[in-house]
Amino acid sequence: MDYQNIIVETRGKVGLITLNRPKALNALNDALVDELVVALNGFEADEAIGCIVITGSDKAFAAGADIGMMATYDYMDVYKGDYITRNWERVKTCRKPVIAAVAGFALGGGCELAMSCDMIYAADTAKFGQPEVKLGILPGAGGTQRLPRAVGKAKAMDLCLTARMMDATEAERAGLVARIIPAEQLLEETLKAATAIAGYSLPVVMMIKESVNRSFESSLNEGLLFERRVFHSAFALEDQKEGMAAFVEKRKAQFKNK
Ligand code: CO8
């Protein structure tokens, strides 16, 4: 596909998607999200890819949904056409791990996109916020749902109601961000982690992702049962034999993804 709004590359076993609308601070429009879905579909289907990274520019991961675009919409456009949010859950449904590498602004839909990923690595320059209230709307792609699950009700209410931004340190302390990395090393360090993940057994990595995500959708007992079943199923993998044999033989495991 000829991408207009994102750059799609591979770095070894990692699929790298760079949001690329620099003049609008990577504001998200339907065309960009559609391209993101095509890229994710491609990486998910590609057996050589074990992990995906979504990133933006030094100044902005994404400054939200495209306000110029939304300004032209009325209720019937967004409801009937399912504009802006169509396909939005594709990041979540991707079965391979997706890491958001965030530098600069991650606001509104940008923060929501980052939160849809499996984890966020933040540059020390990152700023997160849900400023939709200033525009006469509310977060519409998970801001009122994923943010409280990540940072708790108090901080989520504060961010959504006041529109203030949260810096990387606060976001890491609050549990939104997995790691803070100096801005100039953000991509390199994120790719290093993604490469390590892609070097493990892909079915096991997928099982881990599925199990952790399950914890947000179920009671503890249901979640533990799900984990136990998946854990048992890992013993059917050749990679389980290889991983344990490699440990015993004091060598590096060579996983075959089966
Ligand atoms: N949409 C469109 N254009 C934008 C956006 C945006 N969200 N953000 C920035 N831009 C454009 C500016 O208009 C400007 O363009 P131009 O140079 O042509 O005037 C350019 O990017 C640079 O921006 P600024 O000059 O404003 O840069 P500053 O460094 O002064 O400020 C800010 C940076 C603070 C990020 C500021 O641009 C800003 O406040 N942006 C808007 C942030 C915002 O309100 N985001 C929430 C949008 S609503 C939303 O996301 C709803 C999500 C619903 C579902 C999403 C599914 C995809």
Automatic annotation (TrEMBL):
One of its GO terms (biological process) is fatty acid beta-oxidation. InterPro entries: ClpP/crotonase-like_dom_sf, Enoyl-CoA_hyd/isom_CS, Enoyl-CoA_hydra/iso, Enoyl-CoA_hydra_C. Coiled coil: none annotated. Its EC number is 4.2.1.17. It comes from the Bacteria. It catalyses: a 4-saturated-(3S)-3-hydroxyacyl-CoA = a (3E)-enoyl-CoA + H2O; a (3S)-3-hydroxyacyl-CoA = a (2E)-enoyl-CoA + H2O. Keywords: Fatty acid metabolism, Lipid metabolism, Lyase. It is an enzyme of class 4 (lyase). Could possibly oxidize fatty acids using specific components. Belongs to the enoyl-CoA hydratase/isomerase family. This is enoyl-CoA hydratase. It comes from Zoogloea oleivorans.
